[in-house]
Amino acid sequence: MTATDQILALAAHPVPTAEADAALALFGEAAAAGMNSHVVRALRTLRPADDGPAWRAWLSAAAALSVPDGAVPGGAVPGGGMSGGAAPAVGPAVTTVVCAAATALGDDCSAAVAAGLSAAALVEAGLPAAAGWSVPVVSAVIGAGLAGGLMLGLPEAQLRSALGISATQAAGLRAAAGTDAAPLQAGKAAFNAVEAAQLARLGFTSSREPLDGRRALFALLSS
After folding, report:
1. Are 135 and 185 in contact, with CB atoms under 8 Å apart?
2. Virtual torsion, Cα 66, 70, 72, 78, nearest 10 deg
3. Which of 115, 191, 204 is CA-nearest to residue 157?
4. Do 177 and 195 meet the contact criterion of CB atoms below 8 Å apart?
5. Do residues 60 and 104 make contact, with C-beta atoms less than 8 angstroms apart?
6. Which of 100, 106, 117, 196 is the most exposed place for a label (fewest CB within 10 A)?
7. For 135-162, how does the pLDDT look when each residue is reduced to its tens digit (9 = 90+)?
8. Residue 177: which residues within 8 A CB-CB, separation 6 or more?
9. What are the distances in angstroms from CA 93 to CA 47, 99, 212?
10. Rounded to an integer, what distance in angstroms lies between the CA atom of residue 189 and that of residue 2?
11. Could you tell me which residues are beta bridge partners of residue 173?
């Protein structure tokens, strides 16, 4: 079974989890606290009239990651993980991107977030940690694309396309850590994920296997 097939299996019967609910609660607090950050102000200056769901996902993700650790009750946005502890917890960037994508498309999103966090953990496990790419941001766009697709009620074929469209836009550099580019690239990952789900709903297609294979994401980031 390919990694894409494993992710689609996660989406077959998504269920809300306590971990997803906790992540959503802290994400909401962090995003609200960061909405007046200089990063968000700059983005609003550049695109003052944009109010679509992809744009809202970008703003909320960038806002949440612009808040210093400890500035929000309970600390930074927590990492998530696969239900039952079957995989290592993902970090705050992944959790933020997945929550931002899901909440931009609706309110009842615990199940979508749970599936998205599990998908991101699966992708993160398949990526080389030593590469110059920001593995959390790269994996987050895949998990967020799945969460966005579930929020839009996409059937399996369109979910597969959403994953492929997300993967072809995956990016983020480790060198951005500690700079304003870090929340920027995480926010862009949330934007790309929501846009990917919307494009898939409109009939856009992509590779059936965007993660595995010599021309796919895992191979690219390992080279």
Report:
1. no
2. 80
3. 204
4. no
5. yes
6. 106
7. 999 999 999 999 999 999 999 999 999 9
8. 134
9. 23, 10, 23
10. 23
11. 133
Q: Which one, of 89, 150, 149, 148, lies nearest residue 120 by Cα?
A: 89
Q: Which of 172, 158, 161 has the alpha carbon at shortest distance from 210?
A: 161
Asked if residues 62 and 106 have their Cβ atoms less than 8 Å apart, the reply is no
Q: Distance between CA atoms of 79 and 88, rounded to whole angstroms? A: 9
How many whole angstroms separate alpha carbon 92 and alpha carbon 27? 9
Amino acid found at 32: A
Instruction: State the amino acid at position 219 in one-letter form.
Output: A
pLDDT per residue over 51-106, tens digit each? 899 999 999 999 999 987 645 544 444 444 433 333 347 899 999 999 999 999 99
Provide the 8-state DSSP code for 92.
Answer: H
% pLDDT > 70, the chain: 90
Furthest-apart CA atoms within the chain: distance in Å:
46
Cβ-in-10-Å burial (0-12, 13-18, 19+) of 19 comes to: buried
Closest CA to 100 of 82, 83, 81, 77: 77
The number of distinct structural domains making up the chain is 1
CATH of the domain at 52: 1.10.4100.10
List the domain range (segments joined by +) for residue 199.
3-222
